[in-house]
Design a protein that fits this description.
It is built from 10 helices and no strands. By secondary structure, the chain is mainly alpha-helical. The protein starts with 18 loop residues before the first helix and ends with a helix.
C-alpha cells in the first residue's frame, strides 16, 4: 500500500488493516500485479471500504451490460467530473476491455467524439446528463435508452453505474486519490 495513494487523509499500514480487508487487498494485488490505490485509500475507514467494494462488485458482477460498457460509462462520467483517479484507472480498463487504445481518451475529453455505436452513444448521453443535470433527467431519457435497444434492467444498470461513479469521483477528488503509475500504460 503506497503512502501517497491519497494526499488528504492517511493511508493505514497494511498490518493495521482488518484481516478481511487484507485478504481483499491481497486478492487484488495478485490479480492486478499491484494494489490499486483506491483500495489503499478506502482502507482508511474499513466499514466504508467494505460497503464501497460490495457495491462496486455488485455493479460489475451483476449487470446485463458488458464490462466494456460499464467502463465506458465510468470514464465518460469521470471525464465530466475531472476525476484524475478514475480517468486514469478506468481509462486503462476501457482500453483493455474494448481492445482499443484510443477510446478512453475520446471518452475523457468529450464522449460525443467517441467512435461508438448509436446505441452506446445514447447510453453515454444519458449517463453524462445524470452527471451534469440530474434534475433534468426525465422519462424521455429512459425512453431514449429503450429505443436504442437497452432492456429495462440495462437501463437501471446504466443509471446505477453513473450514480455510483459520481459518488466515487467526488470522494476521489475530495481525498485526492492518486492513480497508480501502472494504470497509465495499460492497454496502450
Amino acid at each position: 500500500m503506497l503512502d501517497d495513494a491519497q494526499r488528504r487523509f492517511p493511508v493505514p499500514d497494511y498490518d493495521e488493516v482488518p484481516e478481511d480487508i487484507r485478504e481483499r487487498l491481497d486478492e487484488e494485488t495478485e490479480r492486478a500485479g499491484f494494489t490499486p490505490n483506491v483500495m489503499s485509500a478506502l482502507a482508511y475507514k474499513p466499514s466504508h471500504f467494505r460497503a464501497f467494494m460490495a457495491f462496486h462488485d455488485a455493479l460489475v458482477d451483476d449487470t446485463t451490460l458488458d464490462r466494456e460498457e460499464v467502463e465506458m460509462i465510468v470514464v465518460a462520467v469521470s471525464g465530466r467530473n475531472n476525476c484524475l483517479y478514475c480517468n486514469v484507472a478506468h481509462g486503462a480498463l476501457v482500453r483493455i476491455y474494448a481492445e482499443d487504445p484510443h477510446l478512453a481518451d475520446q471518452l475523457v475529453s468529450n464522449h460525443r467524439t467517441a467512435d461508438v455505436s448509436d446505441e452506446r452513444m445514447a447510453m453515454l448521453e444519458v449517463a453524462v446528463k445524470l452527471t451534469e443535470e440530474p434534475d433534468a433527467v426525465t422519462t424521455d431519457d429512459l425512453d431514449l435508452l429503450y429505443e436504442a435497444g437497452y432492456t429495462q434492467e440495462e437501463v437501471w444498470d446504466i443509471g446505477m453505474v453513473a450514480a455510483f461513479f459520481n459518488l466515487s469521483n467526488r470522494m476521489a477528488t475530495f481525498a485526492d486519490w492518486r492513480p497508480n503509475e501502472e494504470f497509465y500504460g495499460m492497454g496502450r
